[in-house]
Amino acid sequence: MRKKRIGSSRRQSRSTRVTSLDVARHAGVSQSAVSRAFTEGASVSDAMSKRVLKSAREIGYRPNVLARSLITGRSNMVALVVAYLDNQFYPDALERFSRAFQEQGYHILIFLTPNGSDEKAQAVVVELLDYQVDGIVAASISLSERLTRRCQESGIPLLLFNRHQGKDGPASVTSDNFNGARRIAKFLVETGYRRIAHISGWRGSSTGREREDGFRQGLAEYGMSLVDCRDGMYDRQVAMEMARHMCSIEAHRPDAIFVGNDHMAFGVLDVLRHELNLRVPEDVAVVGYDDVEAASWKSYDLTTFSQPIAEMVDTTVAELLQRMETPDKPFSQTRLQGELILRGTTGRREKT
Amino acid sequence: MRKKRIGSSRRQSRSTRVTSLDVARHAGVSQSAVSRAFTEGASVSDAMSKRVLKSAREIGYRPNVLARSLITGRSNMVALVVAYLDNQFYPDALERFSRAFQEQGYHILIFLTPNGSDEKAQAVVVELLDYQVDGIVAASISLSERLTRRCQESGIPLLLFNRHQGKDGPASVTSDNFNGARRIAKFLVETGYRRIAHISGWRGSSTGREREDGFRQGLAEYGMSLVDCRDGMYDRQVAMEMARHMCSIEAHRPDAIFVGNDHMAFGVLDVLRHELNLRVPEDVAVVGYDDVEAASWKSYDLTTFSQPIAEMVDTTVAELLQRMETPDKPFSQTRLQGELILRGTTGRREKT
DNA sequence: CTGAAAGCGCTAACAA
DNA sequence: TTGTTAGCGCTTTCAG
Fold first, then answer.
1. How, if at all, do strands B304-305 and B340-341 pair?
2. Phi and psi (nearest 5°) for A228?
3. B318 touches chain A (CB under 8 A)
4. E strands along B162-234, which residues?
5. Which of A132, A317, B51, B261 is the most exposed place for a label (fewest CB within 10 A)?
6. How far, in Å, CA of B28 to CA of B62, rounded?
7. Domain layout of chain B by residue ranges
């Protein structure tokens, strides 16, 4: 909270504010008439509406959304909580969310969870409840049980985007990470790779765990298992370090690495090609996850498994809008399908 | 605007809402006492404060910031208007803005200007004024004069980030694009390049124009001029197309291209290396602008001119906070310095 | 269809 | 320090 202001100061700085009452006086009508003229579907005559709108334009009036929210109980704001934006998947999602919500008359209040401390991250969400947002999208973060309960109590619909907290957890929209990763395993094995390693996404996240589990399962179905597995923490630097460890000793080097997301995979590729001077895919094949735009850029040309981001965002928005209109609508947990995208970082060997 | 609700429905859906009056009753104190307990620096006794806070916790009360805003005239929200997020420069800036403002107790209401229509973009800003935001950061968009006047009239401080609209325009924070580009020209000429081309940023933007002008000026100082110049529109696809045109005929091929930003430069590099099979920098050297993180990634390893993004964001935030506290503070237009970052996409030839 | 009147949940004088 | 009393700017009954 900033310094308190002396009494008159506020009034002064707001002196330019034009209210509905000013319009009313200017137009010689009642204040409620002005309100109606600015309310979709209110019962106003055409003449009245035109008269008010004209006056409003003349003195530069615009309704105060906050005052409206106070009474309607709807702020037309949706909170989007996100942990970081360096993985291109999230700016992309954010842009889509923002456009989709804007089209529906909602605006996004954005919250970046403070780095490191999970406790602080939770505090941010509490703060956000004070803003009377109509809904919350939690992208790639998990919320404590206490917190999700609070959201429920406050009646604000909450939707987890790209995270899942169990069958009894909050509503969520994800893609089928388990089977996506399983599909990658199948592909790698059938293409002929035999020494397969994994740099996982963060094990503390549902996506990270699901992808790892699915991948192991996929290998197991061929009687195989990982030759190496390390936690990349969804962090480029960490993943690069893991790649160095994995590949620096030739005798232990895997012939294929599944990296938990594209963002890390780009770093891994840089290490393999430019630090260790290995050929991709001849020496080591690499597969990512997400299919962010840069995965298709020729410098990377990364084989990956797509997350249907457009569909995921649209589903999230639609679902949230529904819950906002029908607060007692039961939760839903949507799991969408992606597909394997074959590019240059994996080869086409003979099936052994 | 959504469907109207019947009278009781709103009350019902909000029935969970706990007000300060509820706390007051529960604690057996006045409603204003509750308000004070939640106001930094208000005159409340310790005993009263504790008592209220305890009651509040017991019945799950949190102050309604919207109601507070209505009376204080400050919403603690800052609007950030941005055109797109695929150039990593902007998510990076957004993340920094969000964290910086959050630290000061402000939150960001984000607005993505609709694609294409400039008119719609302006409409978005008008809409945003209705939200009583305390300040506006316009990142990489320009506003019509009428609009900036409206912002001024409504008393909401406006700051242009990475855009400039002339000495008499709104307050702005930019980097010295002109001299940055001029420095690049100097470097290229002195390194020995002689057939120098430019794929400009969008000519409709101040950064695009300033970089082009500075670059031309830099060349002129050596008695040189551009062998080719095309507008890349700050769009990766467009820039790639321009690169194809520029370089497909060997006889006309430049030996160095300055691309208006890194985002486009990555696309240009992909074209040169993977479509036209040219060597960079041996056949064609490439220089970008911004120094986004990916420029340092080994797959690109792009020579570029840095924009001091951290400093730019910090300056913008500080400046805006000041203007919010002192509405009559005079405008300032800050222009920060970056530096030439030499990497692998330019060679070190003999000076001719 | 229109106006008068009663608040939404809170802060900020003003007295006590 | 505390309680009482006005509103902030708007929507929404309720009469007319």
1. antiparallel
2. -160, 145
3. no
4. 171-175, 196-200, 228-231
5. B51
6. 18
7. 6-63, 77-175+309-336, 177-308
> Residue for token digits 């003999």?
B350
Closest by Cα among B173, B129, B118, B150 to B321: B173
In this structure, is the CB of residue A70 within 7 Å of any atom belonging to strand D? yes
Q: What share of chain A is helix, strand, coil (3-state, %, to 5)?
A: 45, 15, 40
The string of pLDDT tens digits covering residues B289-347 is 999 999 999 999 999 999 999 999 999 999 999 999 887 888 899 999 999 999 999 98
pLDDT in tens, B267-300: 999 999 999 999 999 999 999 999 999 999 999 9
Measure the CA dihedral A170/A174/A176/A177, to 10°: -100
The amino acid present at A261, given as its one-letter code, is N
Rounded to the nearest 10 degrees, how much is the dihedral formed by the CA atoms of B294, B300, B306, B308? 10
CATH topology classification for B6-63: 434 Repressor (Amino-terminal Domain) (1.10.260)
Q: Give the CA B67 to C1' D11 distance in Å.
A: 15
CATH topology of domain B77-175+309-336: Rossmann fold (3.40.50)
Q: What tokens were used for A151?
A: 């959201």
What is the structure's pLDDT at B15?
Answer: 47
Fold match flag (B77-175+309-336 vs B177-308): yes
- Rounded Cα distance between B241 and B245, Å, is 6
- Cα end-to-end distance, chain B, whole Å: 67
How far is residue A225's CA from residue B238's CA, in Å, rounded to a whole number?
Answer: 45
pLDDT of A258 > 80? The answer is yes
Nearest-CA distance A92 → chain B (Å):
7
Q: Measuring from the CA of residue B19 to each C1' atom, give the nucleotide at the shortest distance.
A: C9
Q: What is the mean pLDDT of chain A?
A: 91
How confident is the model at residue B269, as a pLDDT?
98
Digit-coded pLDDT (tens) for B34-62: 999 999 888 899 999 999 999 999 999 99
Using DSSP's 3-state secondary structure scheme, residue A228 falls into strand
Task: Note the pLDDT tens digit of each residue in B106-138.
Answer: 999 999 988 767 787 788 888 888 899 999 999
CATH number of A177-308: 3.40.50.2300
Check CB contact of A204 with chain B, cutoff 8 Å.
no
Does the beta-carbon distance from A111 to B90 stay under 8 Å? no
> What is the distance in angstroms measured between the alpha-carbon CA of A21 and the sugar C1' of D7?
14
- Residue A155, sorted as left (phi over 0), alpha (psi -120 to 50) or beta, turns out to be left
Distance CA B234, CA B259 (A): 9
Which residues, numbered 29 to 88 in chain B, qualify as contacts with chain A under a Cβ-Cβ cut-off of 8 Å? 39-41, 60, 62-67, 69-70, 72-73, 75, 77, 84-86, 88
Return positions of chain C under 7 A from a protein CB.
1-5, 7-13
Strand D lies under 7 A from the Cβ of residue B248: no
Whether residue A157 has a cis bond before it, omega within 30° of 0: no
Q: Is the CB of A67 under 7 A from strand D?
A: yes
